[in-house]
From TrEMBL:
<protein>
    <submittedName>
        <fullName>Tail protein X</fullName>
    </submittedName>
</protein>
<dbReference type="Pfam" id="PF05489">
    <property type="entry name" value="Phage_tail_X"/>
</dbReference>
<dbReference type="InterPro" id="IPR008861">
    <property type="entry name" value="GpX-like"/>
</dbReference>
Amino acid sequence: MLTYQTRDGDVLDAIAYAQYGYCDDSVMSQIFAANSGIAAQGAVMPAGTMINLPDIVAPQTSSPAVKLWD
């Protein structure tokens, strides 16, 4: 498990996306479970908040990713 200290303007879903490469309801649920009361902090996290980021593995996709640009 990784611990992240927030900076001014950090939002939880952007932190999750930067850490895991994707962010969905499952990821957010696991982060909320690992951090009691973090949802009460609001959308923009106060600077200096310590967040536990659990070990999450990206799901395997069976179809190739669609690229808008090559």
